[in-house]
Amino acid sequence: MSERLPLALKPIFDAEENRPHSDEPIRHILEFDFSTRSLATFESQGPILTPVVGQEIVLHGVALRVTDVEVSYEVGGDGRPSVFTTVLVELPGRATEQ
Questions:
Q1: Can you tell me the distance from the alpha carbon of 94 to that of 51, in angstroms, rounded to the nearest whole number?
Q2: Separation in Å, CA 65 to CA 3, 23, 46, 48
Q3: Which of 4, 35, 87, 97 is the residue whose CA sits 20 to 30 A from 24?
Q4: Which long-range contacts (CB under 8 A, 24 or more apart) does 35-44 make?
Q5: C-alpha to C-alpha distances, 87 to 27, 31, 38, 41, 83, nearest whole angstrom
Q6: By three-state DSSP, how is residue 98 classified?
Q7: Residue 71 to residue 86: CA distance in whole angstroms
Q8: What is the pLDDT of residues 49-78, one digit of tens each?
Q9: Kind and range of the H or E element at 84?
């Protein structure tokens, strides 16, 4: 059964159809941001656990609360897939300052 999909999804199908394929492992990049500033970035060829909104985490010994998570899946020109995750954090019990 053929189902018509929304035209807004066409860029996804085009990208998948035309991309080269790579045998390289998926690249995972996880960035922690406080307000508009980057605090830390981790990069791995293996999966990195992604925290959820509301979760309290510890980053380099500092307790933080996750306020937002954004994940982007992309493929580079060499065909290697990448997962980019941005985690917005705040200090527990304090208003966010810049």
A1: 20
A2: 42, 36, 24, 18
A3: 87
A4: 35/96, 35/97, 35/98, 36/98, 37/98, 39/89
A5: 17, 6, 10, 10, 13
A6: coil
A7: 7
A8: 999 999 999 999 999 999 999 999 998 888
A9: strand 81-90
- How does pLDDT run across 13-48, given as a tens digit for each residue? 888 887 888 888 899 999 999 998 999 999 999 889
* Length in residues, the chain: 98
| Cα 90 to Cα 34: distance, rounded to the nearest angstrom | 6
Q: Give long-range contacts, CB 8 A cutoff, 24+ apart: 16-20.
A: 19/75, 19/79, 20/77, 20/78, 20/79
DSSP element (H, E) containing 13: helix 10-18
- Is the pTM higher than 0.85? The answer reads no
